[in-house]
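Predict structure. Chain length: 530.
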Amino acid sequence: MLLRFPLLSIYANVLVNAVRRDEEIDALKGISVDAEDASADLTDALQTSKNASVGEQLSAEDMQHGLLDFLNNARWKYSFPDLRPDLDLYARKILEKLPRRKSSNARSCQEQLGGLLTELTTTCQLVIETESRSSCPESVKSIFLHGASVVLALQMGPDLVKNAAATPRLRKPLLDAGYFLKRWIIEQATAKKATILWAGFWTNASDPDGHRSRTSKERLYRFADLIETQTVHPSTKLGQLAEKYDNLAACQGPKENEVKGNMWSFFSFSFVSAMRKKEQDVVVALVHKAMDGERPLDQSILFQYEVPAIGIASWGFGFWSPQVVLIDLLGTCNQTSPALRKQLYSVVGSYRSFTQSREDFVLRSRLSWTCLDCPHSHCHLDEHLAKQVKLLLQAKRKQDQKGSALTKAAKTGKVSKVKKLLYDGADVNFQDQDGNTPLFFAVNLSPGPRRKATAKATAKATAKATAKAKATAKALLDKGANVDAKNKWGETPLAAAMPFPGLRRLLETSKNHGADANAKYKLSTVTVGW
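Prediction complete.
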């Protein structure tokens, strides 16, 4: 397997520079750390003798290369969402006989499922407008009957009913069900703060000091507080409901597990969609599970549903580029990290839109990935580790601030500002929420004719704006700006430059000489294998 292990000293220098160069992070974005302490204590915070070490570090380009490599080598048939008559008939018979009770002591599958259905239906009816409340019972049932297919239908969107290989009559109800569910359930999956994911934490009830264990839920929640975050469950309303009914633990058996799997597919999709909606720029996942043995990692909700949901939200819906920070409390990043990345890619691949090439698809997100090895011998869920993680989070947020500043400078044609930001390490292919890059805005600087201006004044203004646009575009192209980067409407900088001959030639020349380092014909030359 091909992995990237940067030297810790280089990584520390990158973070030090990120902390020293920029202003305090926006408090509204979430997690903060004192800037003076950050620059002074960063090296100490990354000491491997006391804290976690960087087990694996992959940039946005590494992740894009890995996804493209996976798409080029994977063998599958497109997976179309489908109604399941067998599950539908079986589950509906169960649902019709369920006791409608709200009880925190529900022990049987019928009690757990019935209570969860009842409370979710009530929640839906409180959120949805009066005229639509009658749809809530069926909407809730669709989570358990078709949750995985509904997520797939939402990912494919309008392509689903247009594609000849699909059957619109059967698929459209799934898409409609997804749209209705999104109207009310995402709010229930949204926390007040940034949220984190976890797997393998529990409290030993038979041990009087079990809550003090390194992997107890109490320690997990305390660590979340230290890095100013919350857990998706039980901190969110949706997570609290799942916990109240024991995550349907009593529902065992082939059909019951399908019902439970549908629930977690859609719940996980909702948790991650809430992160995306809030523009959460870092997703922390704490893991204390091995890849084999009793209750291995690949049987966890994190592995099966939550990590895939991150990929769907990033590439599938597009233009969300968080940094994933995986903290492995067993110190086995060399095993868990590639396995989780492969899981992320495998689901994203089958969910890819039909109307996009693979090369265009992988450029829809600049998600990056870090795995921290945190072995028990020298790493604990304490203030030391919290500071290290907060420094990682701050570095990412400062990097995104640079990207936003670069976009703003490109919009206004401030060439000197653009060059300074690029010199300071701003991401030349940074994407806003709509997928627009700095180069796209730079090209669009050229104004059209002005109604109340003379022809001479208009020509002069146009020439000035075009010159500024060319200078800005050249600065970006020299650093590898991608001329073919598509926004969510399919527009590219090269297409936007077509009405302006000088700009068009500049971009075409740059493309022909391969300056756009992340363009599709460059992506295929790098392989991240398994």
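Summary: The two ends are 5 Å apart (CA to CA).
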